[in-house]
Amino acid sequence: MSAGKNNRRNHDFQIDAFLVGSCHTADGAYSLLCDLREDRRDALAQVEVGALRTRAKIARAERNLQHSDPAERLEAQADIAEIRAIEETLNNNINAARAELAHIEACIAKIQPHRKFAHLPDPEAHEASQREEWAREFVYRAENYLLTAGTIPHDHFASMRQHPDFQGFILPAIDGIKRMMDEGRIGDLLSHRPAVTALLEVKDVRTTD
């Protein structure tokens, strides 16, 4: 489905449900949110640089309005008109980026208390989160493959086997999925809510007006 961006990279719902919602641990979500935060901070920083350049362009154009050469005056008028034409869009982009950044910061604040590796510097924490995040991602993929196709593609299964927790966590989880399917408990498999999304308190559409 294609959804309107409305001056944003991602809407709050997309961040909550599809980006953070794709993570399986609080630390994995934190790592992703840090990337999103850096992207929006960089975007705002670039806008500030652009704003300075625009101010300089306007100053030159206003000075050239008094130029003796008619062509220079027309060029100056065109520059000013061009800047004014995109000013509203630029302001909308700035406000949207600030709103998106604020939501990302709010998500980080909600997830922070639930992290295992919050005591580590961010680069180390991002690295430490990889093992469990990938183990749970493999289980999630196995669940989806088995529910939709009835089998796990060989290349994905090969990757699963390379994970150090294959024997102790991933394989038993796959066996559990198969057992629940054999018992006809597909509803139970699909009814659980992603734990990280629950931390963000994403509301069910059935409970909203």
In short:
With 209 residues, the protein is mostly helical. It has helices at residues 12-19, 26-64, 70-111, 122-128, 130-148, 154-162, 166-182, 186-191, 195-199. The chain is built from 9 helices and no strands.
Write up this protein.
The protein has 209 residues and is mostly helical. The protein has two domains: 12-124; 129-204, no CATH class. The chain contains nine helices and no strands. The protein has helices at 12-19, 26-64, 70-111, 122-128, 130-148, 154-162, 166-182, 186-191, 195-199. It is elongated, with a radius of gyration of 25 Å.
Outline the fold blueprint.
Blueprint: H1 12-19, H2 26-64, H3 70-111, H4 122-128, H5 130-148, H6 154-162, H7 166-182, H8 186-191, H9 195-199
Helix pairs in contact: 2-3, 5-7
> Treating each run of at least 4 consecutive H or I residues as one helix, how many helices?
9
Q: List the secondary-structure elements in sequence, H or E.
A: HHHHHHHHH
What's the overall geometry?
A: elongated
Assign a percent range to the helix content.
over 70%
Radius of gyration: 25 Å
* Strand percentage: under 5%
Taking the sheet with the most strands, its summary is: none
Number of strands: 0
- The secondary-structure class comes to mainly alpha
Question: Distance between termini?
Answer: 23 Å
- Averaging pLDDT over every residue, what do you get? 89
Poorly predicted runs: none
Structural domain tally: 2
